[in-house]
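Hey,

The postdoc asked me to send both predictions to you directly instead of through the lab channel. I've kept everything plain text so nothing gets mangled by the mail client. Protein one:
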Amino acid sequence: MNLYEHTIIARQDVSPSQLKQIEEKYSKIVEKLDGDIVKLENWGLMNLSYLIKKNKKGNYIHFKIKADGKIISELEKNEKIDKNLLRFLTVKVKKFDLDTDYFMKSDDKENHSK
């Protein structure tokens, strides 16, 4: 099994319940094909560097997945036809960084380190 980091950017106008459905939909695809989601992070609504399909912002969802390549191709096949998604990216990694939280607010970091 290989290790992958998979990030999805959903449209800015999807509701929190739709966002939860998107997370569940792609989690089920991975689990149905005997993959393992090590960590799922919702990074929230962030600005995009440039307009994508007339959107200035996007909801970021990040998966850390232990799976075979066929599972990733199945994920991406489903994401290409999903109208709620703007972009997706999969990167194969050697090991996961499960400790660092890159999108924690700076004041949360101070409270977290105390």
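Protein two:
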Amino acid sequence: MTNSAPEPAPSINLTQVIRRYFKRELFPLLADLRLAIALLLAIAIFSILGTVIEQGQTLGFYQANYPEQPALFGFLSWKVILTLGLDHVYRTWWFLALLILFGASLTICTFQRQLPALRWFSRTWNFYSQPRQFEKFALSATLPEGSLAQLVPLLEQRRYKIFQEGDKLYAHKGIVGRVGPIVVHASMLLILLGAIWGAMTGFFAQEMIPSGETFQIRNVFDAGPWAAGNIPKDWSVKVNRFWIDYSPEGRIDQFYSDLSVLNQAGEEVDRQTIHVNKPLRHQGVTLYQADWSIAAVRLRLNNSPVLELPMGQLETGGAGRLWGTWVPTKPDLSEGVSVVAKDLQGILLIYDSQGKLIATVRPGMAVDVNGVTLSIAEVVGSTGLQIKADPGIPLVYTGFGLLMLGVVMSYVSHSQIWALKTADHFYVGGRTNRAQVIFEREMLQILNQLETTCQPDQPDQPIELSAV
């Protein structure tokens, strides 16, 4: 008795299993319209949150504005915001994951539905050679007489593109209406790609720079993981001058900053005066006029050289913005006065050590305090700049342009007409993807004109279209 060797177990091809899973399970799920709508709604909701909740602020800011007791809406506190990353929504892993999933859904839908539909359309250029094929049209008619030679001029008048082969005809117009949805999908993919690229490589920074100072961008408060290479290190910016225009009522009208861009050798390569809504752009970095402050006051004590004393912002409990400094009037610093300013119009208030107002002065004026002549030379302002770099913006703008174009293209009706001449009858049928009533009227006009041409001595008879 011989022992037969056991049959080997069939080998499992892991590659085929994975390919089958993607083709039968994952791709249909991602191409599902319901999933795409859910992802789009989620992206919209979190984008709104990123607009409502201030982004990139300090811990103290969120603790002051989103306290735990009482929490906003009963649950939204600073701890929730920081834990979920709502202080930098557009750079969180879950928001980027939503964008990637939505992009994958659009891509798969484009390749599985939109492009095959376009390929199917190219196959519809096949001419219909059997009368029964016209029964499937929503709009069709059978005429006892007629010819392609009579139909062609009528279609040409309506800007149809005509293909003819023997006794068979195919005509269409509005092909851009079929391409429009593909352009819309491609534009949304560009927008998503630009948003992801900007989130990964862009950065935000803030600088408060006194007039006359030169700075490099260092105070970066929000940046993507690949943003280091986009933070400029080979050029700097000099604030030549900062000033404020005031209205006759004393309110701030506009901020201005005269900025120079300097290369590594200190040479000026660009110079612009910026204000709110007019930024400076250089090598993909945009500098916006965002805030202002008072940096210092320059003064003399008797005949001393000009001294520059820094001014700090005072706590006012929300009653306004004030800046102040202390000026010693004795060499041993035993006596002095406080100088307070509220704007750059030049009015300074001088208080003694007991907090009593003793003088009001402007730059160029002098006052005697504690036996010393105090002369005010200048109040030095600081410009507050918001600095941003987003390399994804060109892709986003291109995507929005294509999106508008694709939407307009999608509104164009794509109409198709087939015709067949047999020994006994003349068959005409057609369909459109939108504006059904207008297309039906157009078909009736064509058929009425065709009947009139075939029977010039007969009175016009209305032709009824058969609807399937």
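Summary for protein two, as requested: Confidence is low (pLDDT under 50) at residues 458-464.

Thanks,
C.
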